[in-house]
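Incident review: delayed structure delivery

Summary: a single-chain prediction request sat in the queue longer than the usual turnaround. Root cause was a stuck worker, restarted by the on-call engineer. No data loss occurred. The affected request and its eventual output are reproduced below so the record is complete for anyone auditing the incident later.

Affected input:
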Amino acid sequence: MRSMWADKVMMNLVEIAPEAVVPNHSHFNEQAGIVMQGVCEFTIGGETRTMRSGDVYVIPGGVEHSVVRSDGLALGLDIFNPITHRR
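Output delivered after worker restart:
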């Protein structure tokens, strides 16, 4: 994951390895993003969808979510507001 941020927005470029699992979690900030490569199964607030390259998602703050990758590498861009940290 590579992070970049400004005063009011943070972005993470995320590589998800084959068969990787991002466990169910939540955070206070709103998250939006786009699947840039690959196919992943997103579960957001209990609803599961298969997301492919070009698909976008929005996750309200405080809503639990997880991601499962089957085979092959996936690449996504996550955008958060407000930011959670700075270097």
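Verification: The chain has one domain: 2-81.
Action items: add queue-age alerting; document worker restart procedure.
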